[in-house]
Amino acid sequence: MDFQNLLIQNKGRIQYIIINRESKLNALNKATLAELHIALTDAFKSDSVGGIIITGAGTKAFVAGADISEFADLDIKGGTELARLGQSTVFDVIANGNKPVIAAVNGFALGGGLELAMACHIRVASDNAKMGLPEVTLGLIPGYGGTQRLTQLVGRGKALEMIMTADMVTAADAFTIGLVNHVVFPDDLLPKAEEILNKILSRAPLAIASAIKAVNAAAKDGVNGFETEIQGFGNCFGTEDFKEGVSAFLQKRKAEFKGK
Ligand code: COA
Description:
Blueprint: E1 6-11, E2 14-19, H1 30-45, E3 51-56, E4 61-63, H2 76-95, E5 101-105, E6 108-110, H3 112-119, E7 122-126, E8 130-132, H4 146-154, H5 156-165, E9 169-170, H6 171-176, E10 182-184, H7 189-201, H8 205-217, H9 225-236, H10 240-250
Parallel strand pairs: 2-3, 3-5, 4-6, 5-7, 6-8, 7-10
Antiparallel strand pairs: 1-2, 8-9
Helix pairs in contact: 1-2, 2-3, 3-4, 4-5, 8-9
């Protein structure tokens, strides 16, 4: 499928989803979010895609936020619907996806852009990246999960400081507070993201999906994460991949997982 605001590139079992509105610093307008929903749903269903890397076109921005030009005419109902739709169709889809998703943060990741990166399972940043949640400068708060995911990643005190001051943090500071997993030179950004993803893709896919679900359960109200883990652990014993993993270990060879 051809997208207006996304570039899709496949490299082996890795699919790149590139937000492609460089002249607007890849800001997420409604059309881009709708396309992201389609691209993500397709990628999670596709047998040929093992994992996803999300990045932004150009060298300046990952995503500089939700598209502010679409905010002007919204009222309370419209704002509520915008956040609810975005969370359910894009941000939660990524976070709850059954395949690993890595954000390659190649520049500004602000507002909805940082929320997009935080919805991903792992974040790698180039050393020139800048991250922040500047919504209060617009009279708003983050609406795509930012208050929850930033708190989970960096803790309440640092999250409240970033959200209330609207200050950006450097990639180095983001690494120090646990907001990003790795910081690399710009030229090393995609190779590093691929290296991590390829390693994950060499592991048992159903176990990876189960691990994502169990870890996510830690942050879900009304869900017993320990019980989710017990169920997930038990279900792994019914997979061919488990038999292959144990046989390979005992036979001192590399496991060939099939995701079954
Ligand atoms: N929504 C809509 N358009 C955006 C945007 C956003 N979030 N962020 C950047 N753009 C647009 C600018 O309006 C400009 O468009 P124009 O050339 O048609 O005027 C273009 O992208 C380039 O941005 P510009 O502001 O000229 O670049 P800069 O280098 O001077 O500043 C930023 C970069 C990121 C500091 C600045 O663009 C910014 O503050 N953006 C908004 C960040 C924000 O508040 N995000 C949270 C939204 S909830």
